[in-house]
Write a structure and sequence with these properties.
Layout (H helix, E strand, L loop, with lengths): L1 E6 L5 H15 L3 E6 L7 H10 L2 H4 L1 H10 L3 H11 L5 H10 L3 E4 L2 H12 L7 E4 L16 E3 L3 H9 L7 E2 L21 E4 L9 H11 L3 E5 L4 H10 L1 H5 L3 E4 L5 H6 L3 E3 L4 H9 L4 E3 L6 H11 L4 E2 L6 H7 L2 H15 L6 H10 L13
């Protein structure tokens, strides 16, 4: 079986899901190719949207929130989807044909709309799967040409049904993540170990939160700084003693987030769909500090309503919340996360992909321009 996954390199989430699906398919000896839409669409308008409008740090949080909220409006989404589908799809179609794929998978809503255009024009007739990478959906993820939806939870499934999608086309088996996160090897400790990651978390910066934790709690701290050289320098200069004693550990880009989670008791992060799914699967209690943007506001709401994380508001002091937690309470939160994660099926998404791929109708041979 051959699959092609279309993603968009905005943040790491959509690519991470694509890699997780590819990993699982290749374990079955299937062939899978991941393609970034930006490499196929030669249009300055598309590049501008991808690099500016869809990034809250570029467009501004208020503008990004407005765009995301409008994407949950049917009329706006119809117009916006028409705009996205106005881009030339010849390269996408050619890529699908050359890959000789049996199925198309979209981990970004723009991929859904562009492949939808090809199907409606009868340029391809392969099955199309839309993978929703957050805990709430928007109309941009949906299309009458989508054969099946893979979503994070029953909460997301209900949201899609409210958008008009039939129940039998939705599988709430969990956002696909790398298999290594399903290895639960939590190492117990009597001393609170905190992991801090994900760039800006609302009103407080990573630096502010790290200072608050080190100065006002007794916890040890792992900071995943990514490419933030200034943060690394600031922490190295400000906490030499804590670094020497290993109370503070600073990491740049890491490939063993799963192992760091196993050696942590609490995660402080912004509520990106992938990072919170990894924490849920790892049964790692979370604090979501303050303001989030766009889809992350809804992810935080999902976590709070389902008692899967502590979501703070602007008036709450991070260190005081941490100091009120004890190991028994964290153990209870870990148990709740385990109960929720046990409802998810790590293999079901792949079973659906393979099943639909076996029902493919094939590609129309015509190569004329679209």
């Amino acid at each position: 079986m051959k699959a092609i996954i279309f993603t968009l390199s905005i943040g790491g989430g959509h690519n991470s899901v694509a890699l997780a699906i590819k990993e699982r398919l290749e374990m079955r000896k299937d062939i899978c190719e991941i393609v970034d839409l930006c490499s196929l669409i030669d249009d300055n308008r598309f590049s501008f949207i991808a690099q500016n409008v869809l990034k809250p740090d570029k467009s501004g949080y208020q503008a990004y929130d407005l765009i995301y909220d409008l994407s949950r409006n049917r009329l706006f989404s119809m117009l916006f989807n028409l705009y996205i589908s106005s881009f030339n799809c010849n390269n996408i179609r050619d890529k699908i044909i050359k890959s000789d794929s049996d199925i198309v998978i979209a981990t970004h809503p723009y991929a859904v709309q562009l492949v939808t255009k090809l199907k409606r024009l009868r340029k391809i007739r392969l099955p199309l799967i839309s993978v929703v990478t957050d805990y709430i959906a928007t109309y941009t993820y949906t299309s009458s040409e989508v054969d099946h939806y893979i979503v994070a939870s029953d909460y997301t499934k209900g949201d899609l049904m409210n958008l008009g999608i039939y129940q039998n086309k939705i599988s709430a088996c969990g956002i696909p993540i790398r298999k290594k996160f399903y290895n639960k090897n939590h190492i117990a400790s009597k001393h609170l170990r905190i992991m801090l990651m994900s760039g800006m978390c609302g009103c407080l910066s990573m630096k502010d939160m790290a200072y608050d934790i080190i100065k006002n709690t007794n916890a040890s701290l792992k900071v995943i700084a990514g490419g933030d050289k200034q943060l690394i320098k600031t922490l190295q200069n400000g906490f030499k003693e804590e670094i020497a004693s290993s109370r503070l550990e600073i990491y740049e880009y890491v490939k063993n987030i799963d192992e760091l989670m196993d050696n942590s008791d609490l995660l402080i992060t912004k509520p990106g769909g992938i990072s919170i799914t990894e924490a849920i699967i790892k049964n790692l209690p979370m604090i979501i500090p303050f303001r989030s943007s766009g889809q992350e506001r809804y992810n935080a709401k999902f976590l709070e309503e389902n008692h899967l994380a502590i979501v703070l508001d602007n008036k709450e002091n991070l260190a005081s919340v941490i100091n009120k937690l004890d190991m028994d309470e964290l153990k209870s939160k870990r148990k709740r996360l385990m109960q929720f994660s046990n409802q998810l099926d790590e293999d079901k998404a792949i079973d659906i992909i393979v099943s639909l791929a076996n029902k493919k109708e094939g590609i129309y041979p015509s190569l004329q321009s679209i």
